[in-house]
Specification:
With 374 residues, this protein is an alpha/beta fold. It has three domains: 166 residues, 3-Layer(bba) Sandwich (FAD/NAD(P)-binding domain); 54 residues, no CATH class; 93 residues, D-Amino Acid Oxidase, Chain A, domain 2 (2-Layer Sandwich), CATH 3.30.9. It is 27% helix and 26% strand. Strands 8-2-1-12-19-18 form a six-stranded mixed beta sheet. Strands 5-6-4-14 form a four-stranded mixed beta sheet. Strands 15-16-13-17 form a four-stranded antiparallel beta sheet, covered by helices on one side. Helix 1 runs parallel beside helix 6, helix 1 runs parallel beside helix 9 and helix 2 crosses helix 9. The longest helix is centred in the last third of the chain and has 17 residues. The N and C termini lie far apart (49 Å).
């Protein structure tokens, strides 16, 4: 088979798969290169949040449009139930300091047009009666929700393949190479691939790949962990979070609870190239959960896992053409917020390739925001 296509996508996560699908719909030939297996990175290891509340105002428009226009019909469009629930998001507070944090987040979101509000302890428990008396308030966004990240990634992958996208796994990208000043080739350990447009969507590994062409994306690799419980009776369908993000999660279609968090001690210090669970973290997450949900104190943990997030220095993604490297588009540094906006990001990236201009203003997410201002 030819190693040439219209577009090369580096990274087979949900962003890469969604972008490949939307490009293929537009009649573009696409090759996706993935170092490991499809969805093996953060796309299969995250908590599944599809939220607008609590986001930085710079990325909020993407989340709002995804929730309004894409997520509600995604299962039907892709022919697979991605377990999307639009049942709201509670971000919980236990102290006056937490309330202040949430008030700030809420005020900034309302200024962008999001319907989110602060609620008191009584209304919190009216929505979710299983919460402890320690909860004194929350922010509430009734259009937020959650979905299954593994199923969503798989659905995009299968539909992209059906439309002719070529996926090649086990291809370790080592270099992007220019030809006559334009990014044109992707060099792997064993092959050379060529396209007039390259999209770099490989999570944290995007940084090292971009370095080969003189670009540096200021992000760190941060370890987060998650756990899943044995199935419980149906309690609530909302997505949950906290003011300080010490844990987050939801109850799945099958009754299990999926919660994520960190010990706060090992985020930047793993000595491994693959994400590995730390013995402290599950107990830390559980202690936090029991403070909010004492009813779950006897629930048994079935499984735990760890995953990397590509945390940008200013905590919002880079979705951008690169002025000094024509032919290259960056789509990385999502800081753990990428899944919920992935349908919109895939749509916008396809527009950037075909129409040369996205339908949402991405100027605040451009790569050149890191350049020194003179």
């Amino acid at each position: 088979m030819s190693n040439c296509s219209d577009v090369l996508i580096i990274g087979g996560g949900v962003i890469g798969c969604a972008t490949a699908y939307y490009l293929a719909q537009k009649g573009v030939s696409v090759t996706v290169l993935e170092k490991a297996q499809i969805g093996e990175g953060g796309s299969s290891r995250n908590g599944g949040g599809v939220r607008q509340s609590g986001r930085d105002p710079r990325e909020l428009p993407l989340a709002m449009k995804a929730v309004k226009n894409l997520w509600p019909t995604l299962s039907e469009e892709l022919g697979m139930d991605v377990e999307y629930y639009k049942k709201g998001n509670l971000r919980l507070a236990k102290t006056a300091g937490h309330i202040k944090i949430l008030e700030g987040l809420t005020e900034r979101a309302v200024a962008k047009g999001l319907d989110v509000r602060m609620i008191d302890a009584k209304e919190v428990r009216d929505i979710c009666p299983y919460l402890s008396d320690e909860v004194i308030g929350a922010s509430w966004c009734d259009t937020d929700g959650h979905a299954n990240p593994m199923l969503t990634t798989l659905a995009y992958y299968k539909n992209a393949r059906r439309l002719g996208v070529r996926f090649i796994t086990g291809e370790n990208v080592v270099e992007i190479r220019k030809i006559k000043g334009v990014a044109r080739q992707v060099i792997t350990a064993d092959n050379v691939y060529e396209a007039p447009q390259i999209i770099l969507a490989a999570g944290y590994e995007s940084r090292a790949i971009a370095n080969t062409i003189g670009i540096d994306i200021p992000m760190n690799r941060v370890l987060l962990e998650a756990l899943v419980t044995e199935p419980q009776v149906k309690m609530f369908e909302q997505m949950l979070g906290t003011a300080e993000a010490d844990f987050y999660g939801h109850q799945s279609t099958h009754g299990s609870f999926v919660f994520g968090g960190t010990s706060g001690m090992d985020a930047y210090t793993s000595d491994f190239d693959v994400p590995v669970n730390n013995s402290r973290t599950a107990s830390c997450i559980c202690r936090g959960i029991m403070n909010y949900f004492p009813i779950l104190s006897e629930a048994k943990i079935v499984r735990t896992w760890a995953g990397w997030i590509d945390e940008c220095v200013d905590h919002v993604p880079v979705i951008s053409f690169v002025e000094e490297v024509p032919g290259l588009i960056l789509a990385c540094a999502f800081t753990g917020h990428g899944f919920g906006i992935s349908p919109m990001v895939g749509t916008l990236l396809s527009e950037m390739v075909v129409d040369k201009e996205p339908s949402i203003d991405l100027s605040e997410l451009r790569y050149n925001r890191f350049k020194t201002k003179i």
